[in-house]
From TrEMBL:
Primary localisation category: cytoplasm
Organism lineage: Bacteria, Pseudomonadati, Pseudomonadota, Alphaproteobacteria, Rhodobacterales
Leading EC class: oxidoreductase
Similarity annotation: Belongs to the PdxA family.
Protein role: Catalyzes the NAD(P)-dependent oxidation of 4-(phosphooxy)-L-threonine (HTP) into 2-amino-3-oxo-4-(phosphooxy)butyric acid which spontaneously decarboxylates to form 3-amino-2-oxopropyl phosphate (AHAP).
Cofactor(s) needed: Zn(2+); Mg(2+); Co(2+)
Name assigned to this protein: 4-hydroxythreonine-4-phosphate dehydrogenase
Gene: pdxA
Keyword 4Fe-4S: no
Cofactor binding notes: Binds 1 divalent metal cation per subunit. Can use ions such as Zn(2+), Mg(2+) or Co(2+).
Length: 323
């Protein structure tokens, strides 16, 4: 049996604590995990047990949420983020990474954070979770992949304006994304020769230059060179015809030029169950594909489906990496 999965608290004023409790109730003994956070932030009436070592989560009562206590500066009120708790959120992430690096945790799953709260409350200097985890893992570049049973997508450019995408989509960035994605699928998903589809930037993948030149000038030569190395590549493909069921059967992952090109199809196919995966880290990391949802926090209406899927994927990735 592998070590349990570490689940960070995320922002305690968001839905993280309540979906952690719901996930434990749904998963029970199927998937041992423990929650890193302040017990005061759990919903009132939560049945939990304090643990001092992650290994205790393997034998904990399935009806109880194993909690590795991480003290925060202040109580939490659902829907009302508190800057005083920013340092605690960061400390929980750092602790989870340290446990994963030591082998005490097989993987980490991170609940949603508020980047504004962390920046204003603790001087957080990173754009988000992913960049902070890359820093903690000592790697310079990682790849964000969104995954559900029917589709995996990787955006090459992420949170930038659409007008800035053509300049940001360089041959070097695209090549690095393809290499990290292929290595991650081989190591963490058991796909030794993953089939990679690459979406064009322009409508109809440029249509021979009639609708743009990036595909012919940059993408096709790069893909041909990588294919000659042994990568199983197809594209650049027209993005409007590559996400229906029959097309998806022809590849294991779709690498997309920009954020919405990747996220619209996966959120349409499986809005509740999508998982955010970071490829290229020295440890396994997943996250539910949603935010803190301050507007519904504490109302007991938050859907734990994405967190459950993220915990299961973390476990499966850890098993694949161990094998």
């Amino acid at each position: 049996m592998i070590a349990p999965v570490a689940l960070t608290s995320g922002d305690p004023a968001g839905v993280g604590p309540e979906i952690a409790v719901k996930a434990r109730a749904l998963l029970g003994a199927e998937l041992p995990f423990f929650w890193i956070g302040d017990p005061r932030h759990l919903p009132q009436g939560t049945a939990f047990c304090l643990i001092s070592d992650p290994g205790e989560a393997l034998t904990a009562d399935p009806a109880l949420l194993p909690v590795l206590a991480q003290p925060f500066a202040a109580p939490a009120t659902p829907g009302q983020p508190d800057l005083r708790n920013a340092a605690g959120v960061i400390a929980a992430i750092e602790r989870a990474v340290a446990l994963a690096q030591s082998g005490a945790a097989s993987a980490i799953c991170t609940a949603p954070i508020s980047k504004i709260v962390l920046k204003e409350g603790a001087g957080f200097a990173f754009p988000g979770h992913t960049e902070f985890l890359a820093h903690l893992g000592g790697v310079g570049r990682v790849v964000m992949m969104l995954a559900c049973p029917e589709l995996r997508v990787v955006p090459v450019t992420i949170h930038i304006a659409l007008a800035d995408v053509p300049a940001a989509l360089t041959p070097g960035l695209l090549e690095e994304t393809i290499r990290i994605t292929a290595a991650g699928l081989a190591r963490d998903f058991g796909l030794k020769a993953p089939r990679i589809a690459v979406a064009g930037l322009n409508p109809h993948a440029g249509e021979g230059g009639a609708m743009g030149h990036e595909e012919d000038a940059m993408m096709r030569p790069l893909l041909a060179r990588l294919a000659a190395e042994g990568f199983d590549l197809r594209g650049p493909m027209s993005a409007d015809t590559m996400f229906h069921a029959r097309a998806r059967a022809g590849y294991d992952v779709a690498i997309c030029a920009y954020h919405d090109q990747a996220l619209i199809p996966i959120k349409t196919i499986d809005f509740a169950g999508g998982v955010n995966v970071t490829l290229g880290l020295p440890f396994v990391r997943t996250s539910p594909d949603h935010g803190t949802a301050f507007d519904i926090a504490g109302k007991d209406v938050a859907d734990p489906a994405s967190l459950v899927a993220a915990l299961r994927m973390a476990r499966d990735m850890a098993l694949a990496r161990a094998a």
